[in-house]
Amino acid sequence: MKEPHERASGDDRDDGLKAVRDAARAGRISGIDADHRIQQIKAARTIGELDIHTRDLRDVPPPAPPRFQPPAGRPAGPPPVTPPESSAGMPREGRPPGPGRTVPPPDYRPGLPTRQQMHPGARFGRPGRPPLRKSPASPLRIAVIVFIGVMAVAILVPLAIALLSVFALSAVDDGDGRSPGSEPSPSHSSVLTP
Fold this sequence. Notes:
By secondary structure, the protein is mainly alpha-helical. Helix content is about 40%, strand content about 0%. Among the domains are: about 10-55; about 140-175. The protein has five helices and no strands. Helix 1 (about 10-25) runs antiparallel to helix 2 and helix 1 (about 10-25) packs parallel to helix 3 (about 45-55). The longest helix has about 35 residues, at about 140-170. The protein starts with 9 loop residues before the first helix and ends in a 22-residue tail after the last helix. The mean pLDDT is about 70.
């Protein structure tokens, strides 16, 4: 047995390439995987690098022989059941389910599990999503919500009043910066009074 740090010889590479090609021919690895492994094996310098790409291909047990070998001319599996006396007088066709065969229940529907399987108590509930459980309100949660509401009102109400007053004053402004009906100050008067 060679050590992983030893330099790989040409024979070692050939053995690795043969193992990869045999596995690809047998269908144990895909063609793309085989091409990738072949490139990596050709570039490998040490036994350890070769081993990385061939380790899973070695020591593969051969395929198991079939458990039951039918006589020549008969299909594999249990014999078909057709005589009426074996089925309580009812005609049956085909083969009964045996090992390896499963028959789904008559009410089987592929897809997501039913609501009753997901939520055991949902059998007598309304259709649709199950109701969410309401968590009890704690005094701390109530106090935090009330505080946030009071702060929002304390900030938003004065802000709304200020904005409304600014817009109201700008709507009645006559253009020269004075509100209508206000008396001009003496500094703005063009007539000098003694």
